[in-house]
Amino acid sequence: MHTGAPDHDHGHDPILNPSTWGGAVRLLAGSAAFWALAAALLHQAAPSGETFPRLLVFTECVGLTMTLAILLMKSSSPFWRLEPVVRGVLLALVALAGGYIAGHAIAILLLGEPMRLFGQGPEGLVPIVVATLVAGLGLHYFATREQLSSEAAARSEAQRLASESHLRLLHSQLEPHMLFNTLANLRSLVRDDPDAAERMIDQLITYLRASLAASRVPWTTLGAEFAQLRAYLDIMATRMGPRLQWRLDLPAALESAAIAPMLLQPLVENAMKHGVEPQVGVGRIEVCARETGDGIEISVCDSGPGLAPQPHPAPAPGRPGPAGYGLQHVRERLQALYGAAGSLVLQPAQPTGTRAVVRFPRMDPAP
């Protein structure tokens, strides 16, 4: 079963994607201004060849028709299955032929002139020259934007793959440490409290099954992520006894929301290591999710000693700061997956402790 977020196959520039209506409208408005400028320059170069109003009508009709043809083609999934060279040739043919024929016909209708594709005399070449000139400039613009968009998508994908590889490496380093401690605790429980040992074995099976599933998929659901956190905290509560209290709060409406697997685990482990374990007496961890106007916000709070003073300047991008490699890795994953829309912020909790707040846009699993 696929539990990923909605797929983004092509890595298009959003401005060039007709499914982004705001971007399409902006592109058409910019195209109209560009075609008007092209008509003005052409009229200045050959003022006796054509009246400016008529030239402007032909230029706008042909240019905007070409733009619409390109946008419609780029919105078609079969178009993106073609080879890049074939896509370029197809765009050129449709833009030149379709843009000229359809745009020319529209201009003739608007001007109320007899229908014909080619005018008589030298002035009849003007629409062809305009169409060819504008088509060449327009196609060059689209090709440049598509190349830049593809390169940006490739860099983003490489960053995401590196981040996921780092996740698996980090997970392979953290899981044996937690597993050995749990097995050592189990050894004593088998002798002293068999019922507690049986419960811990069940919790450990749940945790390991969820961890294995998380390592095989790029996305999971918040419901599955919280189930894994519950198994982890159950194990830690069995080990620590009454020293650990914990609470998970996940609204039912958010259970199906998509999230990168193991994104919250380092935050809970950090709260356990730096918040609860050094504390004398009872420690508490709370993980709460809520929906905001911008997406989803998840907070991980502990009742520990709080944030240590940070007299040094902030670390350079890509380098771990005082929060350690686990939190830095969460930041890198958020950046790779969500860009500027994903963030991790550490705040003081009240009355004591630390509050890690993760924010990212909501995405539901694809059907």
- What is the rounded Rg? 30 Å
How would a crystallographer describe the biggest sheet? 5 strands, mixed
What is the CATH homologous superfamily assignment of the largest domain?
Answer: Histidine kinase-like ATPase, C-terminal domain
DSSP summary, beta strand count: 7
Written as H for each helix and E for each strand, in order along the chain, the element string is: HHHHHHEHEEHEEHEE
Described by the principal axes of the CA atoms, the overall outline is elongated
**Relative strand content:** 5-15%
Number of domains: 2
Unreliable stretches (pLDDT < 50, length at least 5) are 1-19, 311-323
Tally of helical runs: 9
Structural class from helices and strands?
A: alpha+beta
The pLDDT mean sits at 75
User: Which percent range fits the helix content?
Assistant: 55-70%
Trace the largest sheet across and list its strands: 2-4-5-7-6
Distance between the termini: 9 Å
CATH fold name of the largest domain: Heat Shock Protein 90
Summarize the topology.
Layout: H1 21-45, H2 52-74, H3 77-80, H4 84-111, H5 125-192, H6 194-214, E1 220-221, H7 222-240, E2 244-249, E3 258-259, H8 265-276, E4 283-292, E5 295-302, H9 325-338, E6 343-348, E7 354-360
Parallel strand pairs: 2-4
Antiparallel strand pairs: 1-3, 4-5, 5-7, 6-7
GO molecular function, one term: protein histidine kinase activity
Keywords: Kinase, Membrane, Transferase, Transmembrane, Transmembrane helix
InterPro entries: Bact_2-comp_sensor_kinase, HATPase_C_sf, HATPase_dom, His_kinase_dom, Sig_transdc_His_kin_internal
